[in-house]
Amino acid sequence: MTDALSHRIADSRDDLVALTCELIRVPTRNPPGENYRAICELLETRLRRTGFDCQLIRATGAPGDTDAFPRWNIVSRREGRRPGPCLHFNGHTDVVTVGEGWTRDPFGAAVEGDRIYGRGACDMKGGLAAAIVAAEAFIATYPDFAGAIEISGTADEESGGYGGVAHLAREGWFAPGRVDHVIIPEPLGKDRICLGHRGAWWAEIETRGEIAHGSMPFLGDCAVRHMGAVIAAFEAELFPSLAARRTDMPVIPDGARAGTLNINALHGGAPERAPDDTALPACNVPDRCVMQIDRRVLVEEGVDAAAEEIAALLDRLKATRPGFDYALREINRVIPSMTDPDAPVVTTLQGAIADTLGAEAAFVASPGSYDQKHIDRIGTLKNCVAYGPGILELAHKPDEWIGITDMLDSARVMGRVMERLLLP
Ligand SMILES: [Zn+2]
């Protein structure tokens, strides 16, 4: 990287810290999805300074969008002086709930040594600030650059992204030809490139029985026992089979390099008793039991096959277990997304990490998902990765923090990416 850009980014340390703190101090908790308009306006004021055209876009009608909690997004674009590719940085502006265990003000943005503390510091306001500072430094160093730089701040990533990137993708903002390269500065670490994520299939399984007096259970049919048979089949067949399916996706941590299934919830029969409840329960054979499952899906499996596998298991029980009947309802599906390691955004980042940090970039994939799914499926743009500063394990934890040196290093890498893509 040229010394001019590197020095300019190093000199912007205080500004980067100030911007990160400003972003953290806007409490954009999701749910309910608050202060989206305020953080978009903060970004707009900031980005207009360097000549970005900004548009604020509300995802009207998206899940969760109400007049009390409107889903606002910002897309900003800075044209270069000649034709060339468009490089887009996308950061989600929402943060998860605070939770217990904080020793600092979650929205106070305390700066202590090399760390900035706050909810959203690493996931991912620090990454968004690093991309902004990198772009500003690049524009100041190379006013004649080719192509365009876009920076978006989007809502609702933590709740599926339907009021954010999914909405923008549906409206064509990520169409190939409009945008060429997308980097999402999620906290994956400054020397790692995240190629994608596993998919997910969430569903509800309901078993049915027949209500009867609890003293004569043989006169009814217990839906919870039927669900027990489902769990037994999971243990005997499904869990061992899932664990044996190893993916070529570089998913971290290693335990997630297989298909997984979590039982999110299980409800059947009488409601749970409150600790202060002095009433005795009524004696009934439960006629309904409902399980919520979260199946994480490998790119080699596909979501349809994962869903069909569960349905087939339930059908086998129906054919062999007397009285067994079920209903299966899909709650949500997320496609697995995996960008080709030879895609231009990947090889450019690899080169930029080598140039800037002298390190060989590691490829990773996320066990959960992030907004890449929408850019891939709805936007049909395959040239997208996550790359940004921060320690993934700190996301959603109490006393979340971002390292200032890490932000500066990843800003230099992003600056180098711009040099490689937007200079003739
Ligand atoms: Zn995130």
TrEMBL record:
* Name of the top EC class for this enzyme: hydrolase
Highest taxon, organism lineage: Bacteria
Q: Which cofactor does it need?
A: Co(2+); Zn(2+)
EC numbers listed for it are 3.5.1.18
Question: Which residue range or ranges hold the Peptidase M20 dimerisation domain?
Answer: 196-317
What family name appears in the similarity comment?
Belongs to the peptidase M20A family.
Spell out the NCBIfam families in the cross-references: DapE-ArgE (TIGR01910), PRK13013.1 (NF009558)
Any idea what this protein is called? Succinyl-diaminopimelate desuccinylase
Please name the source species: Roseivivax jejudonensis
This protein's encoding gene: dapE_3
